[in-house]
Amino acid sequence: MFNFLKRKEQVKEGLTKTRTSFLTKLTSLVAKNDVNEEFWSGLEETLIGADVGVETTMALVDKLRGRADKERVRQAAQVQEMLKEELLAILRIQNSDFGISNVTPQVILVVGVNGSGKTTSIGKLTKYLKAQDKKVTLAAGDTFRAAAIDQLKIWGQRVGVDVVAHQPGADPGAVAYDAWQAANARHADYLIVDTAGRLQTKINLMKELEKIGRVIKKCDATAPHETLLVLDAVTGQNGLQQAREFKKATPLTGLILTKLDGTAKGGIVFAIAKELQVPIQYIGTGEGIDDFAEFDAQDFVDGLFA
Amino acid sequence: MFDTLTDKLNAVFKKLSGKGKLSEADVDAALREVRLALLEADVNFKVVKDLLARVRVRAVGEEVMRSLSPAQTVIKIVNDELIATLGEPAKIDLSGEPPHVVMLIGLQGAGKTTAAAKLALQLRKHQQKPLLVAADTRRPAAIQQLQTLGKQIDIPVHSEPNTVPPPTICANAVKRASDGAYSVVLLDTAGRLHIDDDLMRELEEVKQKTHPQEVLLVVDAMTGQEAVRVADEFHKRVGLTGLILTKVDGDARGGAALSVRSVTGVPIKYLGTGEKTDALEPFFPDRLASRILGMGDVLTLIEKAQETINQEQAQKAAEKLLKAQFNFEDFLEQLQAIKKMGPLSQLLGMVPGLNQISKELPADVTDQQMKRIEAIINSMTRQERQFPEVLNGSRRKRIALGSGTSVQEVNQLMSQFKQMQRMMQQIKSGKTRGMFPGIPGLGI
Predict the structure, then answer these.
(1) Among A244, B107, B275, B388, which residue's beta carbon has the most beta carbons within 10 A?
(2) Which segment of A277-291, A292-306, B14-28, B250-264 scores lowest on mean pLDDT?
């Protein structure tokens, strides 16, 4: 429990930087407390500056304008509260069934573009699950990038879990298959499958991802139980396209939003949540093994305005 | 996207009957659309504001050229301004006494290590003797990653245990380069956040100890609005000399390049366009501008085509295409030429119309599939290739058997082929024509 609280503090610290930059612009706007054109365009800029995207921003601002008119709101502070409500509403997506089905091992497939932080996130997620007394096995499915297997093995050592790996260049489907057999034999609660980074425009690589999914299904028809897309918070509008294409290749159950300890705000998740109904499940807030937490929509939005 | 931007601008201008000069109202209406397009492309909103202010000054009162529509006139001014902001391409500076030190820095996951290997390979092609330096002691297996890449391209990698501080490793590497007659030292530093004071200080120290001739910021093309702050901070602390934009082979529009360039003023030196170690290309401002505006990278495609396709052949094929006399023989010729140009997926993304059309077509025209298509065409008789309409059921069955494919695949190819002919008809008669008039090599 203590550990959990401590982690929560760290996460808040990580979000502070996000908060301050988002805050300053908005505060000055709100301080004037006039709901005029300047305020609206300022609000628009604030959202766009947070990578929320033109379309989502326009929709939000339009909606707020409508509400402000209808509810005769004249105070900027009140509009800000309304904005918070709207943002929260977008993020409130029915949680997926993570952990509900009691099949073991629960298979978690981790996907994303190059450099988004898949392997690091897996290390942290493993630690997180292990802290809950779960037994975890890792599959080194990134057989393409130089030394990716070594990288996952180091994380495995740090956390103290088994890593199933083949040679570089091996078929990632085969790695996943073997890893499932091993995880099953060892009665692991979770099997987490790392995959190579791939840009969503690479058709062959997206097909490969589909194949990994099919192979895992041969072991357990209900797997993968969870497919998490790892998204770098610094990503701009392309994040939506990433989520779209990855979702086509393999049904996504959630996002891991990484590198939130920087100044980037990760606003593209609103567009993703809105269009694709993919919830954020975890956030990464640093390079340390404990810089990781379950996503809390309230905290996230509060963090932007606190 | 360009189609939609042009369409939107056309719609804006349709309401205005007045020809001749662009009025303030015309320009403002048009610039609202341009603003949205640039924001969609991840150009920082402050940069957009400044840019559009400059465009506005130039556009108001501008005479609409006879050859261009008002929409095209505005786009041309925007495009010119984008090109000017993106600046001239610059080569890597290797003047003076070797060894020349090149430092690569950036956020985590930007692609520094891959870029370092690509750059080393490129420099060796230019008769340099590069030494790669594994200065990322933080990320697990980062050193191994560079070592593996070094082995792949046969370029030595200087590494030390990850307990040695990176500034010391870098200084040692420079010494080794002087002794060992290496001409270029490429420092692959750890990814770090621009607000991490300790790690930024470490970079300052590396710089102090190695006196790099080039400090290159590696920027992911997918970066959003924060690109401005990141670049600004790195520039202030370490002092940049140039940029490398990575993951350009994705479909991000790359507005971050414009943001970064306008806050730092340093030139863009290279683009990373794939995971292979030779996927490093020079930067051309006009092409990147088209991409940011959503026009697709027509020029790059044209140049690639020119390199590989014999000019006359291309002219002939293009004429045939437009007359819809295009047959399977020409198709095969084209396929073979395209294969020389690089992966098909990369090529399709470069053509504005095709970008969308290719998504509507059975999406997976992959290189693998190209081989099958080739096999199918190779199993046709000459007559069948020249007059595809003779392909009846039994001929198709024979072709499927001969090419090791199925009748379905042959049918699919037929329908794709027909679609292609139709598409070419559209290009011939349609709006896309005005977009790239007189491009050499395509004959349109």
Answers:
(1) B107
(2) B14-28
CATH code where residue B226 lies: 3.40.50.300
Q: Are A50 and B225 a contacting pair at CB < 8 A?
A: yes
Reported as a single tens digit per residue, the pLDDT across B383-433 is 888 888 888 989 999 999 999 989 988 998 888 788 777 766 665 554 443
| Pair B165, B275 in one domain | yes
| Distance between CA atoms of residues B60 and B76, nearest Å | 13
Is residue B237 located within the same domain as residue B195?
yes
Q: Are residues B123 and B265 in the same domain?
A: yes
A197 contacts A116 by C-beta, under 8 angstroms: yes
- Asked if B111 and A155 come within 8 Å (Cβ–Cβ), the reply is no
Task: Give the number of beta-carbon pairs within 8 Å between A and B.
Answer: 157
In a shared domain, residues B34 and B104 = no
Assigned domain for B370 exists = yes
Flag whether B443 is in a domain.
no
Q: Do A236 and B111 touch (CB under 8 A)?
A: no
CA distance A189 to chain B (A): 25
Best of A163, A201, A242 to substitute, by most chain B Cβ atoms within 10 angstroms, is: A201
pLDDT > 50? residue A2: no
For B425, the token pair is: 């008809």
* Token pair belonging to A265: 């705000």
Q: Identify the domain containing residue B150 by its residue range.
A: 100-286
Please give the Cα distance from B318 to B306 (Å, whole number).
Answer: 13
Flag if A51 and B109 touch (Cβ within 8 Å): no
- Nearest neighbour of A262 by CB, restricted to B149, B195, B253: B195
Interatomic CA distance for residues B80 and A268, integer angstroms: 30
| Cis amide linkage into residue A172, ω under 30° from 0 | no
- Give the total number of structural domains in chain B: 3
Domain with B61 in it: what CATH number? 1.20.120.140
Examine the predicted complex and report whether its ipTM is higher than 0.95: no
Q: Do B141 and B236 belong together in one domain?
A: yes
Q: Does residue B253 lie in a domain region?
A: yes
CATH number of the domain residue B310 falls in: 1.10.260.30
A114 inside 8 A of chain B by CB:
yes
Distance in Å, alpha carbon of B34 to nearest chain A alpha carbon = 12
Residue B389 in contact with partner chain A when CB distance is under 8 A: no
Q: Is B34 helix (H, G, I), strand (E, B) or coil?
A: helix
| Within-domain flag for B434 | no
Q: Model's pTM, two decimal places?
A: 0.79
Using the Cβ of B353 and the Cβ atoms of chain A, whether some distance falls under 8 Å is answered with no
